[in-house]
Amino acid sequence: MKKIMIMLSAMLLMCGCSGKGESSSALPAANTAEALESSVPDDSSTTDDSSAADDDSSKDETPASADKTDTPTLTGFADSSSFTLEFSGFDDADGVVIKAYYPQTAETVVYDDIPKGAESYVIKSQKSGVQGVFSAVPYTLDGDKKTEGEPAPELTLTTMRRKMMIDIKSICQYSKPALPTGCECTALATVLKYYSILIPKEYIAKLYLDKQEFTLNKKDELIGGDPEEVFVGDPFDENSYGCYSKPLANAANKIFEGAGSDLRAKAVDGKALSYWFDYVNNGTPVIVWATTNMDKTEKTDTWKTKDGKEITWLHNEHCLVLAGFDLDKSEVYVCDPLCRNTGPVRYDMKLFEKRYNEQGKRAVLIQQGGQNG
Hints:
alpha+beta; Immunoglobulin-like; seven-stranded antiparallel β-sheet; five-stranded antiparallel β-sheet; 6 helices; 22 strands; elongated
């Protein structure tokens, strides 16, 4: 993957940023549209109803599926013992072969038993934790002569492990200059650093994130931003709120486009937490929303946007980076912007999943532009 170092210009350095002092009492809060339709359930009676075993969204959708296209594509996913590869855009070919390179054994295997017209292929009998680098290569036939065409872009997959931890370093939102309500910007800065894009969290907050402060209309009604579209308030202000996946993905894409990066960010909401384990298993950290210290989600402030949409905030909203999991211990490992240590911290998987669900199953996925999520 292309890695980039952003060199901040003198113009940006002149902008400067100054945050407020550290405050442990001011916790970010945000809205979820789903919560407007029904109240947040009491914590003592809430059941975890979206585990991998019960949530159909973790079964009927794959992390790398793609619609049929004229451009050759190769997508797929892996479980603990097989790779499922899906390919399209080879309609003019007489057939397709799959070429696989397994780095752990330095072995190259060609799978040429793919039926004509097939659009998927399963490679079975693999162990967990096996990495494969795959390409789908079309060919045409002229008598006995086989001529290969241009392959689809390579796809790297790893069969699902029981335990995985990405080597990623956390950034603290309270490191100076502090962002008391800037967990979203800090989580993004953490992932960008993982991809060798070095841009301070305060520059993301000041220069790339769309923000909206509160105002009063002619009726003296409080008018605020929609967290689905903008950050409500200012990440430097401990009395501000936050944002969700779309505005954070937009900020990331501004950075990528300005840097000439082939990375792209995408807001992906509504997926079961287990859906993201496949990405983590393949070395891709995922920005997700849960709560501060896994505290209970509660409704708090309400206001209207300038378009008349009513917003109800869910207190304790917090943005983190999913960086690992342990299925046997039922734990997840996350880069938590509240923590000053640089390594991921652990949370109980069921509790984390409950908070993730309460906050609307929000996530931002960052990948190369040609990949599908």
